[in-house]
Every structure is written in C-alpha cells, then in structure tokens.
TrEMBL record, chains A, B:
Keyword Heme belongs to the record: no
Species of origin: Streptomyces diacarni
Annotated protein name in UniProt: PadR family transcriptional regulator
Coiled coil: 131-172
Start-end of Basic and acidic residues biased regions: 189-209
Compositional bias ranges of the Polar residues kind: 210-222
Gene3D superfamilies reported in the protein's UniProt record: Winged helix-like DNA-binding domain superfamily/Winged helix DNA-binding domain
Pfam families in the record: PadR
SUPFAM superfamilies in the record: Winged helix' DNA-binding domain (SSF46785)
DNA sequence: AATTTCATGTAATTCGTTACATGATTCC
DNA sequence: GGAATCATGTAACGAATTACATGAAATT
C-alpha cells in the first residue's frame, strides 16, 4: 500500500526540487539522468507519487488550463493544453524533508542501492557530506575486496577456470571503482583547499522565492 | 509460498550437482563461488530448498552418520548423531532439469540478473551455448551503450557535473565489460578451432559414480 | 483513418530481505 | 562455562515488476 521506498522516493523528490513535472516525464528523467543503475516503471512511480502527496511533500497541480482556450491543434505548437496532466510540485515540507535526506551520512548511504542516487544529487549536497559518502563507499569497497581476496586464497584450487575468471573480473571492477572514488575524493579535497565557499557548485538553493508566483506549469522544458 | 526464483534455484541446482551439501554450507558457497554479484540469506534459501524437494529435483538425506564414531561430546541423550543436518542431493530428474536450464539461450539469459550465474556454471555448459550467451550479452550491452550515447548527446548541457560524471563512469563500465566479453569470445573461438572435444574444460561429469559411496557429510571442507 | 506516443493508473505477483525463534557444537 | 559459529527454520514485510485497463493527442 505504501510504496515509499528509499531510492525511488529520494530520486523523485530530488528531481522535483529542480522543477515541477508530471509523472510521465519524471519517469523518463529517472531512467536517463539517474544513469544506468536503475530503471523504474509506472507501476512503481505513480503509487509512490500518491504516497508522497499524502505525506504532504508534494502537491498535485492539475494542469487544468481554462477550457475556453479551445485549441484544436495548439496554436504555436507550444506546450499549452493536453490531457489532464498532473504536475507535481515539491512543497516546503517536501523541500525540508529532502534536505534532511541529503544531509544523512548513515552506513546505508554508501551501499550499492543508495550510492548511485546519492551521487546523482551531489550537486545539491554539501561538501562535507559528499566527502563522507565518498570515503564511506571507498572503505566499504575495500572491505569487500579484502574478503574476496581472502576467500580466493582459500579456495583457489577448487574452482574451475570460469568461476575463477568471474571472480577475477568482479574484483577488477571493484578495484576500478575504488580508483575512481580516490580520484573524486582528491578532486574534492583540492576544491576545498582554495575557495572558501563559492566556486564549488553551491547547493542550488533559492531558485525563485518560496513558490513560483505565476503558473509553475509550462516548465516542462520539452 | 513458492519462492522458486530463477537465479537462486539455478545456483542451488548447479552447486548440488557438483556435490551434495546441507543448507548452511550451500549458502556460503553461493556467496563466494558465485562472486560479488549476489548474496542470499537463509530466509530465501531454505524455502527454496523445500520447494525443490517438493518438485522432486532434490532429496533430503538426514545426515544420520554411524554413531559408533564416538565424538567427545557425542550421543548421550541425543537421537542419533549430531543435530539433524539435512544433506540435499540432486535427483536424476533434478539433473535432467538442470541440464535443460543449462541449454537455454533465451533473451533473459544475458540480462543482468541471469548472466552472472549462467557464467558461473559455464564449466558445465556446452560451447555453443556459451557462445550464444556471451554474444547475446555483448550485443545487449552495445545496445545499451548506443542509447546512453544518444541520451547523453540530447541532454548534455542540462546536466550538472556530478550527474555527468556518473553517466560517464557508467558508460565506461559498460564499455569495459564489452571488451571483456570480446576477449572471452575470441578465446572461445580459438579454443574451438583446434581440438575437436577435449582440452576445453569438459563438462565435468563423472565425479565418481552416481552417488558418493561413503558419508557425504564431513565434506564441509573447512 | 490508423498508429504511435503521451499519460495515468490498479491488481497480482515476484523475488527477495529482516527479525525472530531455536538449538547443537566447538573453541577458549 | 561462556562465546562464537554452526545449523535450521518461519512470519512479516519491502520494493519493485508485469500485465492489465483506459484514453487523449500527435504523427503519418
């Protein structure tokens, strides 16, 4: 019934923070912006949106434009009227909640399921949190590497070539991610040495006042 | 109620084909042999074993070892030997079923969830099936790369640095796996040119007779 | 006019996990 | 004798999917 998930919820809040959107577009963004890692279907998305509305983090804004504007073929081809699209917008409570989520640095934040989506919103995350998440993930992966090496040493002889190759390739992937993280961490450190505040992708606050005064729809940017 | 999963079921059958085992050890093997990719818990494993027994693919063999073998703490008051460890053994039908599974080359076989476990049992898989699976996966990944590149070209400007970096790293991972697959495919091809049959890791049949004659317990190899 | 794409949703199912509950055996 | 590890299970939940159902708008 609830469908509030963690990853999906986080991503939805994060995307809607940037700009209001309706479900269909949201889903496309989820599956591209958020990269290779996750793909969500409508069956997950719509119930999730409903749940978020119920908690007061989103509001539905039926894109019900005045019907006097009967546009058989949409003059100017612009994004004016269509079927009752429901545009979702983040409320003030929603914003606050998302910022709470952004500031979390608990142990799951660097697990496989969460790390990708956390990283995707690093643009809105403070530098110290970014550092903790990156370093947390790196040491998590190093732990994993140690276990793999140990297990490999114990069982090397009993395994056939394919199993071994699978293991080898898996370890290499993890090692590669560790190197990637190390580069990112160093680059974060360099960024924080010079420059006290600005110049490092600020948290993107104040995109207008608390609520867009005029119609927040028509911002579907397509 | 059923819990027959696909991946877990496949892996259990495959491991038990090599030798009978009880649940606890099976789980350890699942989480090491099968590599980084999957970790299963008892909550999944035991119900799965039960289901496989019900279908006639496994039999439970209560490991009632001869109690003459005095252990220092031993029999006093207990029913038979130790606690009833349940050793699972593949039946003839189970073997047949697993071979059916091994010979499948449908489109899911190279999807993310299945590919790892399929590869882990390549040692028991015929060469032509191996080839189809490897090539299927490679072209699946190439498709994915094409989509990613297209989407990246469309949206490059709208994305912040972190999202972009995530995307870049994701693509590189996929490219790396493609190169890996290409090497494997070539090596398979080379292997099949010379040598008509032997010398390419035969399917590992006949590890003794149909059933291990002596007690299959104490094979816990630790 | 027909097809594709946009758009929203629900019900049932899948594939797993965590937390709980229990007890035996081995190590120190 | 106490802790760690071995060993087996069940109930409740979680987070998503697939398949289904519907219909409007744009493209051809």
């Amino acid at each position: 019934m609830s469908r509030r998930s963690g990853v999906l919820e986080f991503a939805v809040l994060g995307l809607l923070r940037e700009s209001p959107m309706h479900g269909y577009e949201l889903r496309k963004r989820l599956n591209t912006s958020l990269g290779v890692f996750r793909a969500f279907s409508y069956g997950s998305l719509y119930p999730c949106l409903k749940a978020l509305v119920q908690r007061g983090w989103l509001v539905e804004e039926p894109s019900a434009q005045p019907e006097e504007q009967l546009t058989p073929r949409a003059q100017a081809g612009s994004l004016a009227g269509r079927r009752a699209k429901i545009v979702y917008r983040l409320t003030a409570e929603g914003k606050e909640h998302f910022e709470d989520l952004l500031s979390q640095t608990g142990p799951d934040t660097w697990e496989d399921e969460h790390f990708g989506v956390r990283f995707a919103f690093f643009g809105q995350t403070s530098r110290d949190v970014r550092m903790r998440v990156l370093e947390g993930r790196r040491s998590r992966l190093e732990e994993r590497l140690a276990k793999m090496r140990a297990s490999l040493a114990r069982t090397r002889e009993r395994l056939d070539d394919y199993t071994l190759e699978l293991q080898r390739h898996g370890m290499e992937s993890v090692e590669r991610e560790v190197r990637w993280l190390t580069e990112l961490i160093e680059s974060e450190r360099k960024g924080s040495e010079r420059a006290g505040d600005e110049r490092t992708r600020r948290p993107a606050r104040e995109t207008g006042s608390d609520r867009p005064s005029s119609g927040p729809s028509d911002n579907t940017d397509r």
